[in-house]
Amino acid sequence: MYRYDEIDRAVVAERVAEFREQTERFLAGKLTEDEFRPLRLRNGLYVQRFAPMLRISVPYGLLESAQLRCLARVVREYDRGYGHFTTRQNIQLNWPRLERVPDLLAELAQVQLHGIQACGNDTRNITSDYLAGVAADEIVDPRPYCELLRQFVTLHPEFYWLPRKFKFGFTGATVDRAATLTNDAAVHVRRRDDGTIGYRFFVGGGLGRLPMLGQEMNPFVPESDLLIYATAVLRTFNRFGRRDNIHKARIKIVLREWGYERFRAAVEDEYAKITASSERDSLRLEPGDIERVRAHFGAPPYRPAPEVAYDVERLASRDARFAAWLKRNVRAHKVAGYRVVYVPLKAPGQPPGDCTAEQFEALADLCEAYSFGELRSTYDQNLILADVPECHLHELWRALDALGLATPNVGLVTDIVCCPGLDFCGLANAGSIGVADEIYRRFDSLDAQYEVGPIRITISGCMNGCGHHSVGHIGILGVDKHGEEWYQVTLGGSAGNDAAIGERVGRALARSEIAQGVERLVQAYLELRCDEDETFLECYRRVGMGPYKARLYESETEEAAA
Amino acid sequence: MSARILRRRALIEDDWQVAPERTADLPPGARIIVPLARFRAEREALIASAAAVGVLLANTEDVELVYPEIRDRPLIALLFPTFADGRALSQAAVLRNRLGYAGELRAVGDVVRDLVFWLARGGFDSIAPRADQDLEACRLALDQFSAAYQAAADGRTPVWVQRRTQAAR
């Protein structure tokens, strides 16, 4: 991972000092709430239902053991003993006290963690493929480019006071594991047949109200022009993004109001103007700039594969629980003798994405022992140990199992993506964690989950869509109707290569109906599928909404008939 | 009574004034700032009656389109309706970095100390803080961060270019 030098360390320390002073001014009544809000948001601090929420940026989902130990310490000291991983690979604390946040940030700064631009109308933390560097389908490791862009947009003189938030998502693989098209800008790092590297740039994605997927702006921006193209896109947004209505301020609205052709012409025109002017010289990357950053993301010192491969399967044949874990939570690694181990934060009764201080600490030890000291967070609110030698899989499994971190449900029906919802969030209209828990209980048996196969259920407690409901195979959106919690259901969404916005089925279901409704949808799938190989999403796309809709509102039809 | 402003690194008495409605009886040596529309309408009269005429642009103005009309102005003022509305920062970037405007570039409006660092980096060499602001704090904010991650109109060497020379050593 990228390691700070003296320059980076100084900037983060200066940032803590700046925020400490701003917080003091606010607490002394010298800054109004309206004045303080944009300042605290740019340090990751929301004010929520019960307490502030602090979002900590985790660039590209990479964490190392020292950071995990620091997180364990701060969630005990400043919070209630746990943190929450988000769909953008970040960590949120739900209970810090405002007056102590500067101290908290100072502690985080010791291990190069911060909340700079984690919230607010600015360029947010960059997300990336969580299998970067270890995936067999990777074309180019995207992380050096992410890092170059991350530094470039940090405290940017022109793009720090944007109309609305702006998110970048990167991938350098053929499989999109980072939901890139749901970002304001998606960057696909590509290599041409002649070896030259470039970026396929998409713009205009975004969930929340009017969910949209990014559209291609340029099929191949040259490698040297990453910052130039990003400047063209951000400048177009800064100039033309709407500032009269917060709900219409994302770049996707500019694209929608202008139409694709006009929007794309504007971005390309700005790109051409920069390239033709002296601005280009100050933005153009030299090969050495990229290589220097790439050196931070080199492969760890893998050991050569043993001559006789370690026989994991033999162990599995003697232990069904280990076998289930091996099958569901362990994936191939591009280096022989290594595997990728998923650590789901989706145990029964665990709010999706939550991680306790004890788990942070234990994971610090485990990643040091088994995965070169590094842990990663995923788009699905899970964690992974990316570089585990096969010979350690069994002992790692035993350790994870003891921590409640070995539920063999990755990618299955209980691997639910879910925002904090009404239990914590000031924006939410309805609870989400409770709904996730009820759905979970209906599929608690592993056999039932394996029968259903890969499926993605996503839940957001409000329109803002932090739980990515609009790109779930089954998406659930909590809405408020006259003070009651209701849930709209969408089907057929996807955040991967076949990205699509889900379609709304019909009227919302009451809190008491929603879990059962989801169960009926899954039951419908089991009846409708051609065979066990046809996934929920494939089946939905083949048969369409009709039969699912009929099943979702079945009880209503029965009542009407009776 | 004139206000105090920050010009480059100095706190000074402002030597510009927002133009009064009638410019016929301006004192000798008066330096005035007028909105673009008025400048267009009264250009000759204004230039004749004042020692210097600067122009104030709305933050929705396309600076590339209007630049031929204002390129010889000694001062261009850009407006921040609220400090979190950063459109004028893009106008400044284009004026300085692409069009090469070398006159005084002034930030006016809801200019607070928490914005000063970004203004200075973005090419504003003249900053007129909101009346209630602590001017000394505004001056100190120029040095809020010791490093710059981008090349910008203030000419600071960005970190990633600094690292080129470090690597070369």
Give an overview in words.
Chain A is an alpha+beta fold and 562 residues long. Chain A has four domains: 6-109, Sulfite Reductase Hemoprotein, domain 2; 134-295, Sulfite Reductase Hemoprotein, domain 1 (2-Layer Sandwich); 312-402, Sulfite Reductase Hemoprotein, domain 2 (Alpha-Beta Complex); 417-561, 2-Layer Sandwich (Sulfite Reductase Hemoprotein, domain 1), CATH 3.30.413.10. Chain A is 39% helix and 17% strand. Chain A has 20 helices and 21 strands. In chain A, the strands form four sheets. In chain A, strands 16, 17, 18, 19, 20 and 21 form a six-stranded mixed sheet that branches. Chain A has a five-stranded antiparallel sheet with strand order 1-2-5-4-13. In chain A, strands 3-14-15-12-11 form a five-stranded antiparallel sheet. In chain A, a hairpin with a 5-residue loop joins strand 4 (82-85) and strand 5. In chain A, helix 1 packs antiparallel against helix 2 (33-41). Chain A is globular and about 65 Å long. The termini of chain A are far apart. Chain B is α/β, with parallel strands linked by helices and 169 residues long. Chain B has a single domain (4-168), classed as Alpha-Beta Barrel (TIM Barrel). In chain B, 36% of the residues lie in helices and 21% in strands. Chain B has six helices and eight strands. An eight-stranded mixed sheet of chain B has the order 2-1-8-7-6-5-4-3. In chain B, helix 4 crosses helix 5 (135-141). The longest helix of chain B is centred in the N-terminal third of the chain and has 14 residues, at 36-49. The N and C termini of chain B lie far apart (54 Å). The model of chain B has no long low-confidence stretch (mean pLDDT 95). The chains are: A alpha+beta (562), B alpha/beta (169).
Put the structure in a nutshell:
Chain A is an alpha+beta fold.
